[in-house]
Write a structure and sequence with these properties.
By secondary structure, the protein is mainly α. Helix content is 91%, strand content 0%.
Length: 103
């Protein structure tokens, strides 16, 4: 009977050890997945920021082209460099540079 109890206790210890190993493996896997999730979220955020920056650059480029067109249009209509600069909100030097390149 003692032998049976010892055997039973040994089996219980083995089972407990196996369950503990499974629990630890599950915890490690959960941590690995959590780290992977954080890494992927970080990568997605970087990509989102890159897209935002690209869109902002495109908007600035578009606005600049519109402003250049407006400067050329106003100069061609006979406005002085100073008048165009004041109307568009840029320096006279900028107007001069644009008109020199664009006309």
């Amino acid at each position: 009977q003692e032998r049976e109890e010892a055997r039973s206790e040994s089996m219980l210890k083995q089972q407990t050890a196996i369950e503990e190993k499974k629990r630890l493996a599950t915890e490690r896997e959960a941590m690995r997945l959590s780290k992977e999730k954080i890494k992927l979220e970080s990568e997605l955020e970087k990509q989102r920021l890159k897209k935002e920056e690209a869109l902002e650059r495109a908007k600035i480029h578009e606005a600049t082209n519109e402003r250049i067109s407006k400067i050329i249009q106003l100069k061609e209509s006979g406005m002085s460099t100073a008048e165009v600069a004041k109307k568009v909100g840029v320096t006279r030097q900028y107007v001069w540079k644009i008109t020199r390149q664009g006309m």
